[in-house]
Each structure stands twice: as C-alpha cells, then as structure tokens.
Amino acid sequence: MSEIRVLTIREAIREALAEEMTREPTMFLIGEDIGQPGGCYKVTEGLQRRFGADRVMDTPISEEGFVGIGVGAALTGMRPVVEIMFGDFLTLAMDQIVNQAAKFCYMTGGQAKVPLVLRTTMGAGCAAAAQHSQSLQVWMAHIPGLKVVMPSTPYDAKGLMKTAIRDDNPVIVFEHKMMYGLKGPVPVDEYTVPFGVADVKVEGSDVTVVATSSMVHVAIQAAQMLAEEDISVEVVDPRTLKPLDTETIVRSVKKTSRAVVIDEGYLSYGVTAEIAAIIADEAFYYLDAPVKRIGAADVPIPFAPVLEAATIPTAQVVVDTVKALFG
User: Fold this and answer.
1) Region 207-222: what's the mean pLDDT?
2) Is the peptide bond before 243 cis (omega within 30 degrees of 0)?
3) Statement to judge: residues 68 and 112 lie in one domain
4) Distance of CA 302 to the CA centre of its chain
5) Which of 64, 238, 281 shows the shortest CA–CA distance to 137?
6) Are residue 91 and residue 178 in the same domain, yes or no?
7) Measured in whole angstroms, how far is the alpha carbon of residue 326 from the centre of its chain?
8) pLDDT tens-digit readout, 78-91
9) How far apart are CA 35 and CA 29, in angstroms?
10) In this structure, is residue 315 part of a structural domain?
11) In angstroms, rounded to a whole number, what is the distance separating the alpha carbons of residues 76 and 26?
12) What percent of the chain has pLDDT over 70?
C-alpha cells in the first residue's frame, strides 16, 4: 500500500507540476509573478529555483499576450501550463482561448493539437471585490474543444492536474482561491485522476446533492447537519464539468429520488441549470420532488465582507433546500 501524506491543495498542485516537469522536458510554466514570487497564492513557490527561469517564466501584465504564447507553444509540440492569476481575467484572453485554442484541432481535421493547461482561480470570500471574485467556469464549459476541471480536495487536485498536463487538448483548471490551504491525504506513489469520472464523497439514500469545488465541502457540512434529523444525503462531486459524468449523477438520483445541485457560479444560466436539466431528462420518473438549484446571487460580488458572504451559498441554505423537498 502506498504511503499517505497530508498535503494542502497548494502543495498537491505544486507537487504535480514538479513531477510532470521532471517527467516531461517540453513542459514549462508561464504567468504573472509565478517565478521568484511563487505566484499570487504561492502555488509555484520554489519551482523557478528548481527548474530555471527558462521553464518557469514571469510575464508582463498581458493575459492575451501570454495565453497566446502558450497556444503557440502548444501548437509546436510543447506542453505549457499558463497561470491566469484571477479567473475574472479570462475575459482578457477570450479570443486566444475560445477562438484559437479550442478550435485548432477541429479546423485542421485533427492535424494540429493544443496540449495547453490553463490554471486559474475562482470563488469569493476574500474581499477582493467584483473584478476578482467571480466563478466563470460555465463560460469555459460552454465551449466545444475545452475541458474544464474543478478539484475539491488535495488528492483530486494533484491527480487531475497530472491528467490535464498529459492531455493533448486544452484544459482549464479552476482552483478555488479560498481552498489552497485545505488539507487532505495524498499518496506518495504515482497516480492520476481520470477526467469524466465523478466521485461520491458521501454515500446516502434520501437525497442527492451534486456539488462542485468549494461547494462540495458546504454540501458535506449540510449532510452532517441533516444526518442529525435522520435525512441521509449523498454528495456527488463531478470533479470535471467537461467531460461530465452524467452516469454517476443519474444513478445516484435514481437511488435517492431527490436532487439538489449547488455551484458557486451565478445561478442564472449556470452549471446548476445544465446538471438539473440532465437529471430531469434522464431520471424524471424516479423523482419524488422537483430538482432544486443553489448558486451565487446574481449580483456583482460586493467588496464588504458581510455583503459578500450573503452572495455565497451556505450549508444552512442547503439544509433548508433539502428539507423543503420532503414537504
């Protein structure tokens, strides 16, 4: 049996990057302040000293420019990992991501590949205001040609990152900025986590809660609260939005007959709507109640902490939503 350590999500991602850079000589990291400063959230700390400035490169403040460098390098056979400091800044590189990286394979009949990993953050909770706190993962999941990854534990963060780096297609990895210090078990031995395979974080029999990223932990907390009222909650973590493991989600809902979907993105036109629609399509006759959705409030994220907190789904909201399903 493999030795197990306890790592933070930050440490798990750093370890994945280091292992893959050692394994793959064409891999390099590029982004703002990722070199000597170690990144905004210290994920890449120490990697420039270990691998050199030609493989861990700081950039000017120009997301369109350095994402373009990543796309071009990937087209020539390299494996760049590009960091965008805040997910909100994806907006500055949308042409490179949506019209270039996502399309090259299709427009060349498979002759060109773009093995690009784009790491970025999501989530509110640190009083960073409206331009640094959004969760825009549904934008990326909407685009054919992009894969979208949302880890919720150190184990998943490392395994999914290694899978992303080895993929021949562009992959967007959303890391929740408030979860970098979250600790969990990570094996010493080599492993990867496959895309499109959901993980049942908590088994239950009365209601399924499908949750992403930080909301997985909100759902687990709610499951513990509801267990005290004899309501058994199954928590399903998709781990990747694209590809999405619909089979595991639908199988769970067929077992429990009730479903709640929770994601920190805006509620309107979001991840929760897509997953709820899939459940309604494929498990309708098993449902004993309507599918309920929980998401961030449809407002710009406030700067004031007390107002910001009011926009983020909580365990109590999940508890109240689940209890309502039982009349």
Assistant:
1) 98
2) yes
3) yes
4) 22
5) 238
6) yes
7) 31
8) 999 999 999 999 99
9) 9
10) yes
11) 10
12) 100
